[in-house]
């Protein structure tokens, strides 16, 4: 595992240390690693949503919804 040194204002340093002091994290590094993992997951989720938006926009203009055809299609699947 690699090492990285970061500089934090005293208030942030105290916050990080407090997160490990309550027992949820073994140490400050565990807390920072968890923050990074969560940020990676968040960014992946945003990218997934953006890809879906891009796909929708590329699919063209929306068509009017035909309730009768939709209902008929549902009934056809039950048969």
Mean pLDDT: 92
Q: Give the number of DSSP strands.
A: 0
The count of helical stretches stands at 3
Oligomer: single chain
Main sheet characteristics = none
Task: Tell me the structural class.
Answer: mainly alpha
List segments where confidence is low: pLDDT < 50 over at least 5 consecutive residues. Answer: none
- Tell me the series of helices and strands, N- to C-terminal: HHH
Strand content: under 5%
The CA-CA distance between the termini, in Å, is: 59 Å
Fraction in helix: 55-70%
* Rg value: 24 Å
Shape: elongated
Outline the fold blueprint.
Layout lengths: L9 H12 L6 H31 L8 H12 L1
Helix pairs in contact: 1-2
Give a brief outline of the structure:
With 79 residues, the chain is mainly α. The protein has helices spanning 10-21, 28-58, 67-78.
Q: How would you describe what is shown here?
A:
With 79 residues, this protein is mainly α. The protein has a domain at 10-59. Helices cover 70% and strands 0% of the residues. The protein contains 3 helices and no strands. The protein has helices at residues 10-21, 28-58, 67-78. α1 crosses α2 (28-58). The longest helix is centred in the middle third of the chain and has 31 residues, at 28-58. It is elongated, with a radius of gyration of 24 Å. It starts with 9 loop residues before the first helix and ends with a helix. The model has no long low-confidence stretch (mean pLDDT 92).
